[in-house]
Design a protein that fits this description.
458 residues; alpha/beta; Cytidine Deaminase, domain 2; 6-stranded mixed sheet; 4-stranded parallel sheet; 18 helices; 10 strands; 48% helix; binds iron/sulfur cluster
Amino acid sequence: MISPAPTLFDAPALLSLQRAIQDNQGSEVFFVGYVDEDSRLIRDVEAVAYGNQSMTPVLLERALTADVIIHNHPSGNLEPSAQDLQMADMLMNQAGVSFVIVDNTVTQVKIVYYAPFLSSQKQTPLKTEEILKLFGPEGAFALKLKGYEAREAQLSMLSQIVDAFNHKDLAIIEAGTGTGKSLAYLLPSLYWAHQNKEKVIITTFTKNLQQQLVDKDLPFLKDILPFSFSYAIVKGKQNYICRKRFEEAFDTLKALSHTPALFDAEDQERYRLFAAVDEWLSQTKEGDLEELAGELLRQVREDIQAQSDLCIHRRCPYFDNCYINLSRQKVFTSDLIITNHHFFLAQLSLDYADVNVRLLPLFSKIIIDEAHNFKKAALSFLQEQASFFSLNKNLGRIYSLSRKKHNGELNQLLLNLQKSQAPGARSCLEKIQDDILPYFEALREKINYFLRPLISRL
Ligand code: SF4
């Protein structure tokens, strides 16, 4: 959220920031700051790094002894970059250090993390009456929706959620269809996020419900609430295209197309599919694979979707424009985050400090809708399992025996080496064929030997 700078800095600190940025001709300056325990304002600040020097040893060393890192964005766009988010995450998770961004005149501040708010003992409780007023005869609902009538069950549910939020309690609520439960939990969640500057997560089992919240309920509330708020859907990485995987595979096909003897019908069909994805890529803003037409998606998904274990993070040439990072940026700066049970549980089972795989920011409250499915989803994530199919699928991603020669990474490498004129390519090819392929074949045989008999018993 973006706030006026005086809500976070005391006057001398504001002045010091402005002077240091001015002295540096408006270029980037990184400061460490210290928070006053009573006022929760940042009182002392000190410039410790200049220019595009984030993650320098001196800054990291000083950051670990400070309460907050502050830096300016000379462009005036206060949205955190992928690099900012990575640094903010690491500092918050590993040292509890907050991270904020200011503009060059230090009039506005973007809070990425602010621990004094996150762990505040002084949370502002919600006022049930204030929210219920929206439902009264003169309230926003009646004014906006002709003939609107408040439902008793909805108001009772809302009050129970307000109580649970205020008292850090757990509320288990069963509400029948037509209760208006989405609004009953969205309102306390939004008021909480707004008043306490804490993120609230809503998790659902079905995509339909997520879509209803995002397409219908939240835009409606944006119209009637007396404050602004932001929200985002967070999805697993595999829902996005990996630019690197796509570009590399497409480049290989393009190179192959110059050698007609090697460019067979299967390659040509694959080329056609990749060209269609390339066209979509030039238009998409989100990189969400669901935007692709069903049949096209079915045929290319495996080859172009982002995969945690294949991502090389900062070493990737597309890192700053990676769709996952863009989505992460949006999620980390939203007040309300909508997700699904599977993704939420998958994130819980991760090492929370691993900033490369974590897509959920720190949050304060959670609403679990469609909770009757939560147990089923939890079981599938909080247990370890291996299956004949998943082992073979993963093996196939490395080296595939399928007729489709492009399927595995190793198959791809073999193809490239066969075509290559580079010195050493032939010996490398022989090494793979003699030493590595037999290893994969033996592994596949072992999986078959141990697991096939089990399958036949099912
Ligand atoms: S950062 Fe990772 S997921 Fe994103 S494009 Fe690069 S390799 Fe793919």
